[in-house]
Every structure is written in structure tokens, then in C-alpha cells.
Amino acid sequence: MEYKTLGRPGIKVSQLSYGAWVTYRNHMGVNDAKSIFQCYRNNGVNFFDNAKITEAWGVAERLDLVGPIVEQPEYNLFTRQKVELDYLHLHNKYGLGLTIWSPLAFGFLTGKYNSGNIPSDSRFALENYKHLATKSMVDNLLKKVNGLKPIADELGVPLSQLAIVSSVIIGATKVSQT
Fold first, then answer.
1. Where along the chain do its domains lie?
2. Which CATH code for domain 3-177?
3. Residues forming beta bridges with residue 17, ordered by sequence position
4. What residue ranges carry the coiled-coil annotation (predicted)?
5. What is the model's pTM?
């Protein structure tokens, strides 16, 4: 496992971090979840939870503590504002590191939804997520995916590789994905 230094405190973290909120919430059995988590632990992957950055820093400063050193926003080719605009001042002011989630835009950047159908084993097929996968949302994202395809083709890489950044959250839903 390769590690990087995170934030001003210089904490050493794995380049990959493991996100479980979506993965385990009504999506898989306990045994599968344990197997996947054990695989990540065995390979030196860190686990992170979210924090309310500004509020947490305010509390930390009042109590003379170290504030948060990492934020876990959604970030991909389609969802960039929070990282690139909204949080920029937090990164500059606090030296905040990032460990993002959904770098493949819920699988849209893998081609999983190119047929326009929601696969039965995908997160969008879950009861909790069905409301997110509206026809207009799927069509809109597929239009964007199709617009990026020529760029990936020109570079000679799959669209999923074009989309990946240096630090991602792995949210495996099957042991075969680990």
C-alpha cells in the first residue's frame, strides 16, 4: 500500500480509503461486509468518516484542540463545485486533506448504465436510492458520459480511468470488487 501525508499535522494515510456508509446500509449481508472490510484492513487501507469542517474547527479552536484534517466530499467529473469552489477556503485556511467518494459517479463513468437500464445489483436498484435514479437524471448523466467518451478515446484510456483521481474511496458491494 502506498501512503501519503495528509493535512498540516502530517498524518500518514493510505492512498485508498474505505467508505462503508452506502455499502453497508441495507445493501449486503454481515458476512460479506466483514469479508470485504477484512480484505481492506489486511492491505493497509484506512477508514474515514465525515465531519462538519467549519463547526468542528470552531469547537477545536475554542477547546485548544487539533481540528479535522480531512473532508470526505463527493467528487467526480460531474460533481466538482463542493471541492473546487465551496471548500477551497477550508483547504487553504486549515490545510485540509481530501478523501473523496463517488469518483465514478455512482458507476456512470464505468459504462454500467450505458443501456439506460438500472442493473438489479446496483445501488440505484436499492429501495433507498430508487428516487435518485429518475429517467431524467439517468438520461442527463448518460448525455454527459457520452460527451466525455471522445476525450477518453483520444487518450486511449477507458472512461473510468479518465475519471479516477489519486485518492478514492472504495465502496465495494461484492468481494470480487476488492
1. 3-177
2. 3.20.20.100
3. 46, 169
4. none
5. 0.59
